[in-house]
């Protein structure tokens, strides 16, 4: 069976990713003054204990946490406006989990997430998930998001971030990305041969990039550079699933 390394956000994530993302978010979230603190997150004085299944789980956990940070004000407003928060059954210590799971839920257009059979369920994630996915909560949350978009005249959630950040993200998303060759498992020659069978062509530099092209870094010969448009497609190759190529 074909293996994939990526966890597509449109399907949701395994329970452990939500737990790790919540712990990361708890430590980086924006602290607000007491007169503005309408959403309470509990104590975050202790360093979180993170347990990642693999490098990909680490990456998506941090991505989800920082996405929740970027939209923290909006997510909190949605929770409050919908009446979904506060909830007596959800203690302050689980508010970060509630926020990161809401961040993912709105990204999936409030559709239920995929079930990952290979991983043991986490009780807290299951509890928050069942609460958010209830029909009445989903309806209230979607309505609250729609009201926020009307209130701020925003076409999409991306328009809730400052223009400077939005432009910066656009520039970053267009940049080429690098991967390391794990020379303990595969040689440069074998990687090139594998990529050629996938229809990719080696070029001399990034200035020669077309869509299905790549280049060997001029200074580090165990580093390959690819166009940004290939990122999602490449991450689904067995080369990544087998850790023969590692995303920089």
Task: Describe the protein's architecture and organization.
Keywords: Methyltransferase, Transferase. One of its GO terms (molecular function) is methyltransferase activity. This is NSUN7 methyltransferase. With 248 residues, this protein is of the alpha+beta class. The protein has 2 domains: 15-162; 175-247, Alpha-Beta Plaits, CATH 3.30.70. Helix content is 45%, strand content 8%. The chain has 10 helices and 5 strands. A 5-stranded mixed beta sheet has the order 2-3-4-1-5. The longest helix has 17 residues, at 135-151. The two termini are 27 Å apart.
Number of helices: 10
Which structural class best describes the helix and strand composition? alpha+beta
Q: Which stretches of 5+ consecutive residues score pLDDT under 50?
A: 1-8
What's the order of the H and E elements? HHHHHHHEHEEEHHE
Could you state the oligomeric state of the chains shown? single chain
Please count the beta strands (DSSP E, at least 2 residues each): 5
Main β-sheet: number of strands, strand sense, barrel status?
A: 5 strands, mixed
How many domain regions?
Answer: 2
State mean pLDDT (0 to 100 scale). Answer: 88
Q: Give the helix level as a range of percent.
A: 40-55%
How big a fraction of the residues is strand? 5-15%
Could you tell me how far the N terminus lies from the C terminus, measured between alpha carbons in angstroms?
27 Å
Q: Based on CA inertia axes, which overall geometry fits?
A: elongated
């Amino acid at each position: 069976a074909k293996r994939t390394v990526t966890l597509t956000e449109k399907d949701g994530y395994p329970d452990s990713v939500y737990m790790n993302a919540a712990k990361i978010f708890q430590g980086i979230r924006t602290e607000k003054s007491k007169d503005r603190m309408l959403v309470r997150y509990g104590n975050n004085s202790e360093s979180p204990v993170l347990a990642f299944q693999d490098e990909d789980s680490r990456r998506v956990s941090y991505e989800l946490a920082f996405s929740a940070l970027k939209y923290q004000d909006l997510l909190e407003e949605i929770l409050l406006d919908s009446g979904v928060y506060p909830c007596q059954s959800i203690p302050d210590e689980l508010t970060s989990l509630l926020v990161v799971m809401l961040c993912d839920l709105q990204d999936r257009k409030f559709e239920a997430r995929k079930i990952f059979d290979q991983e043991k369920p986490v009780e807290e994630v299951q509890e928050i998930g069942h609460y958010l996915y209830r029909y009445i909560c989903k309806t209230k949350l979607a309505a609250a998001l729609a009201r926020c978009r009307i209130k701020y005249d925003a076409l999409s959630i991306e328009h809730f971030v400052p223009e400077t950040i939005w432009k910066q993200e656009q520039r970053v998303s267009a940049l080429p990305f690098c991967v390391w060759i794990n020379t303990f498992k595969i040689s440069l020659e074998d990687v090139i041969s594998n990529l050629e069978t996938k229809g990719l062509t080696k070029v001399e530099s990034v200035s020669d990039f077309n869509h299905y092209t790549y280049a060997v870094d001029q200074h580090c010969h165990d580093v390959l550079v690819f166009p940004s448009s290939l990122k999602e497609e490449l991450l689904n190759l067995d080369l990544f699933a087998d850790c023969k190529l590692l995303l920089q």
